[in-house]
Amino acid sequence: MTIRQHDKVAIVGMSGSGKSTLVKLLIDFYQPNSGDVILNGFNVKNIDKHTLRTHINYIPQEPYIFSATIEENLRLGNRSGITEKDIAKACQLALIDTDINKMAMQYQTKLDENGNTLSGGQRQRLTIARALLSPAQVLIFDESTSGLDAITEKQLIDNLVAMTDKTIIFIAHRLSIAKRTNHIIVLHDGRVAEEGTHAALLNEHGYYYDLINS
Description:
Layout: E1 2-3, E2 8-12, H1 19-26, E3 38-39, E4 42-43, H2 49-55, E5 56-59, E6 68-69, H3 70-74, H4 84-93, H5 97-101, E7 110-111, H6 120-133, E8 138-142, H7 150-161, E9 167-171, H8 175-178, E10 183-188, E11 191-196, H9 198-204, H10 207-212
Parallel strand pairs: 1-3, 2-9, 2-10, 5-8, 8-9
Antiparallel strand pairs: 3-4, 6-7, 10-11
Helix pairs in contact: 4-6
Subcellular location: Cell membrane
Keywords: ATP-binding, Cell membrane, Membrane, Nucleotide-binding, Transmembrane, Transmembrane helix, Transport
Pfam family, one: ABC_tran
C-alpha cells in the first residue's frame, strides 16, 4: 500500500475489516507480517519511532484536552514559533474560531481536564486545530469528526482536503468523507481489496459499490 505525499486518502471498509489495525501499522505500533507501508515515499519500518511521531500526527475520535487555557492546549509541545496569526488560521480551518471568540476570555479561557465545559464537537474541532499547528506532515483522522453535524463536517472536511502542504488520511466510517478525497483504499477481511477514486470504484461494482449502496 502506498500513500503519496500530499494525498488526501480515505480508508473505508465494513466493521472488522481491519481499519484499526491499518492505523496501527501506519503509526508503527504494529509491524506488517509481509509487504511494506510506504508513506510520503518512506518505508515506515525504516524510520525510528521518535522521527515517525514527529512527522505523523494521529487524531482519535475521543480527543484529550489538558487542564490549561485554550491557547496553551493549541501550543502543546513547546511550539514557540507559532504566532497568533497561525493559531487564528488553524482555528478558522477547524471551524472552532467563532466558538472561541464568543467566550469571555477567548483564547485565554481555562479548560478543565478532558475539556468537560466544551461539547464533543468543540473538543474534536479544537484537537483538529492543534493538529494543524503541529509540524507533522501526515495527519491521520480516525473518526475525528463524529461529533459534528453533517453540514459542519462537510465544510471542515472540504477545508482539510483543500490543504496543499499535508498528507491527510481519513479512517472514514461516513462514506460522505471518502467522496471528497482523491484516493480511497477499501479494506476487506484485513486486506486491501480495492483502491481508486470514488468514481472509478463505483464503476467497478465491487466492495466499495456495495458499501455505498448498503
